[in-house]
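Onboarding guide, step 5: your first structure request.
Type a short instruction followed by the sequence, for example:

Predict the 3D structure of this protein.
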Amino acid sequence: MRIKRNHPLAIKDRPVTAQRQLLLDILRQAHSHLDAKELYQRAIERDRHISLATVYRNLRLFKELGLVDEIRLDEIHCCYEIKRSTEHYHLLCTSCGRVIEFESPLIAKLVAEVKRNCGFQANRAVLHLAGCCQKCKKKSSL
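The system replies with structure tokens like these:
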């Protein structure tokens, strides 16, 4: 089902299909970062006709339109989240794969220092730290 382009829910002049709306809803409601396969698994529970290819196509579209951020965790794995207005950064647990968000004023200070010392104007800082989360650290110390 297609919604008209001038519908109030239109995504930057793109038609909003029921499947696009479903994927955006799942991303908005997620309490964690989702990769494409996890998004597909959640979507298929609500619409058995959706395909993994549709998920990938729409994630690419959402990214191009600035609706979602793609977080590259390594050369192969990436996850997605609804774009937020505040900058935040990610911790990746290499044991369990959990992604934890954090904010730090130190990153803004670092960006300002780089500008001052190097004359480089950064428009975005992307940071993720890989290591072991508290839960996995506790398990390994037992």
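Each response can be followed by summary notes, for example: Residues 84-142 form a domain with the Dna Ligase; domain 1 fold (CATH 3.30.1490.190).
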